[in-house]
Design goal:
By secondary structure, the chain is mainly alpha-helical. The chain contains 5 helices and 2 strands; from the N terminus they run H-E-H-H-E-H-H.
Length: 177
């Protein structure tokens, strides 16, 4: 369990790093006249992702979940892939990446990196991580509950983001970056 707690702490630290990047990018975006959409669902998203981390540790400890090597090592690989995809998204979007839905007027949509393959690759990383992190140590209840709640949240989030991006694209004539 100790190594698993360190893994969850590392993911939490990565999240803090994301928030630092997001705050910096928010300042950059707002200085360029950005608007934010979806403020109402953002606190729910923060709470859900915090609950994932807490749930991983609590379930493993309280339900005495074992480490099953075949499952654990494969889920650790999925988790590493999810982190790599997330940071590919962050570096591809540069100053435009954020944990909030913030759109800078006049900037074209990004169509390179993972965005040339998928419209919302960061959410693929979120879904993979939400399944993999708990399952590294067989916390299947946490994996299932997070996945269900996240599916509902992502439905709202992706619709919100699509509306915001469509508004930005329509003002530009949808020129890819």
């Amino acid at each position: 369990m100790d190594w698993y707690a360190l893994l969850v702490a590392a993911v939490a630290a990565e999240r803090v790093g994301e928030l630092v990047v997001a705050r910096r990018n928010e300042r950059w975006s707002r200085a360029r006249g950005a608007t934010e959409a979806g403020r109402g669902h953002y606190p729910v998203m923060v709470a859900l992702h915090t609950a994932l981390l807490v749930g991983c540790l609590a379930e493993v400890r309280l339900a005495d979940r074992p480490f099953l090597p075949v499952l654990g090592w494969s889920m650790l690989a999925v988790l590493a892939g999810a982190q790599a995809l997330r940071w590919w998204c962050i570096t591809t979007l540069g100053h435009r990446w954020n944990t909030r839905v913030i759109v800078v007027p006049g900037l074209p949509l990004v169509a390179r990196g993972p965005y040339r393959l998928l419209r919302h690759p960061n959410y693929v990383a979120v879904v993979a991580e939400g399944l993999a992190l708990p399952l590294v140590h067989t916390a299947w209840v946490t994996a299932a509950l997070f996945t269900l709640a996240d599916a509902a949240l992502l439905t709202v989030r992706i619709r919100c983001e699509n509306r915001a991006l469509a508004g930005a694209a329509s003002s530009l004539g949808s020129v890819p970056a």
